[in-house]
Amino acid sequence: xxxxxxxxxxxxxxxxxxxxxxxxxxxxxxxxxxxxxxxxxxxxxxxxxxxxxxxxxxxxxxxxxxxxxxxxxxxxxxxxxxxxxxxxxxxxxxxxxxxxxxxxxxxxxxxxxxxxxxxxxxxxxxxxxxxxxxxxxxxxxxxxxxxxxxxxxxxxxxxxxxxxxxxxxxxxxxxxxxxxxxxxxxxxxxxxxxxxxxxxxxxxxxxxxxxxxxxxxxxxxxxxxxxxxxxxxxxxxxxxxxxxxxxxxxxxxxxxxxxxxxxxxxxxxxxxxxxxxxxxxxxxxxxxxxxxxxxxxxxxxxxxxxxxxxxxxxxxxxxxxxxxxxxxxxxxxxxxxxxxxxxxxxxxxxxxxxxxxxxxxxxxxxxxxxxxxxxxxxxxxxxxxxxxxxxxxxxxxxxxxxxxxxxxxxxxxxxxxxxxxxxxxxxxxxxxxxxxxxxxxxxxxxxxxxxxxxxxxxxxxxxxxxxxxxxxxxxxxxxxxxx
Length: 483
Ligand code: ADP
Hints:
Blueprint: H1 10-33, H2 39-75, H3 86-89, H4 94-125, E1 129-133, E2 139-142, H5 144-150, H6 159-162, H7 166-178, E3 182-188, E4 194-202, E5 213-219, H8 221-256, H9 263-295, E6 303-305, H10 307-317, H11 319-325, E7 328-333, E8 340-342, H12 344-361, E9 367-375, E10 390-396, H13 419-424, H14 431-441, E11 445-451, E12 455-462, H15 465-475
Parallel strand pairs: 7-9
Antiparallel strand pairs: 1-2, 1-5, 3-4, 4-5, 6-8, 9-10, 10-12, 11-12
Helix pairs in contact: 1-2, 8-9, 9-14, 10-12, 12-14
The structure holds adenosine-5'-diphosphate.
Adenosine-5'-diphosphate is lined by residues 353, 357-358, 361, 397, 399, 402, 410, 415-418, 422, 427-433, 456.
């Protein structure tokens, strides 16, 4: 804090002294005119009056000058010490009032600084992207989320150079023209590959920094993906159910009409209808399983599960199917396999779907080999990053195999390599999607190896019961990506 030394201009000083001493001049002049005062006494008298006036005028003027400087400094928001107004203080409480004024100003300034800092922190910590521009769409301010996505140093750049999207630009122009806020959705291609929802608002009067447009962008990429997947899923599920249903309706009509009295045709049609009904029933069951697993995806399963018991029990369910194709299931199990943590029924479904597929797609007169062991060669997956061992079981068939391009898509719902063939063997296209979802919930990993003409091996890694507890705590908040 500084204090300015008051400087009184000489002309002001002279003028004030002359004004203050003017009554004395009038009296002295009157005496001189009337001859009661000699001219030399008149001059001495006037000079003396001026000097006495100066004794009072100088401190008065210097106090006024200090006060003027002080008020000026306050107006310019400079921090200065309140002036010494000893002369004026005699006249009133001016100095105290000025001190109180400065104190209240100081408090106000601190309040404003706090409000500004709070707002800046608030804007920066918003998860949504905030971009503020002037009417020419030149960026004035951004928040941290915006800088994280679009880079630092965004100020003074044209918005189009940062977000080259016509939908957004047109919406901003419309807001500038008619002052009404707008809400639009748009897709931003390479390198962002994101969907955004933008809310655009306009300040009625631009701020001091020139901000007139405020754009809030919310990343809706995930939401859009889920919406698309849902729409695809409903379309696929309806299609899958409509096909056998149409076939059953067709056969019913035939049996009521042209084939009414044809006993041979009736038997044949009833068999096809039973197959189609069976297919629908399997599809509905798979859909229900999938929805159940999805609903529980964030609730970690907690039971101790003995995989060997599940494998042995599931093998028995396939005896009839094996007989039909002359396929045998060979078990190569490590009898001391430790337990995993999970849901008994869900893991049984994984084993059932994988053995079922192996039997469906293996060639007749071959062997399906089911292996279960403890392994220390782990897959490159976050679930196993801090572990040194895992339970591994695999199902190997000797079928046609699957060519490379199909493998990454096998766990998508309704994805089939050969639709006609799959339908013939009773597949719904949901079995591996269920496997994938169950394994996600169990922090497990599915691997698929296949060689066209030789067969396929589906492998499953699961953490051990005793190793899974710290893993679950770590992964509890990790978002699940539906597929
Ligand atoms: P589906 O019920 O149709 O078998 P899945 O989801 O279980 O559905 O399998 C998806 C697709 O993956 C199948 O339609 C099939 O084309 C292929 N597939 C699955 N398992 C095997 C396998 N063991 N051998 C060859 N192809 C397989």
